[in-house]
Amino acid sequence: MKPRYLLLLALLACGFSACTTDYTTNTSHISPLPEGELMNAASFAELASGLEELGLFDATAMADEPLAVEDLRIYLHENELTADFLSDSGNEETDLTLEEIMALRPARNWSSSVTLSYSKEGAERLQRWLTDNFTGSTHIDLRFIVSANKQEIIVRGIEPSAADFEQFPEVPLFNF
């Protein structure tokens, strides 16, 4: 199964069940989340568990696609872990090298990164890394770089600033 499809399924598993944006209204700013919507170890355990159940840490499931890069914004909405894509992954990038794919993605100053293996320990390490670096955050931008050839998953993260919300808005999952 392709990594981008696994990430899409992870979004569904983490509570992303309906579009909540009303595109008929004209909004020019991003509303802040209510107080108390801070992510913690339980949120990160839910994310890591969902990704593990969907096979992100299974090398045989990832063998179909040797390389994939996805940018996501993770946050809590009404106490449900939610994720939005930050890049339009509609174009097929199967014949590109990692350097060519990364050139298509916006450059970011990631605050932290972790290299994971295709194993249960990889999921546990992802949870620990998120807990250690992002507990108390309202939003986290993550870049997943999945490389089946190198047998590794690289995850980079940053707590987005107000300017990041404008520069890197979420990409609607469905365009009607």
UniProtKB/TrEMBL annotation:
This protein's UniProt keywords: Signal
Residues spanning the signal sequence: 1-20
Protein name: Lipoprotein
Highest classification ranks of the organism: Bacteria, Pseudomonadati, Bacteroidota, Saprospiria, Saprospirales
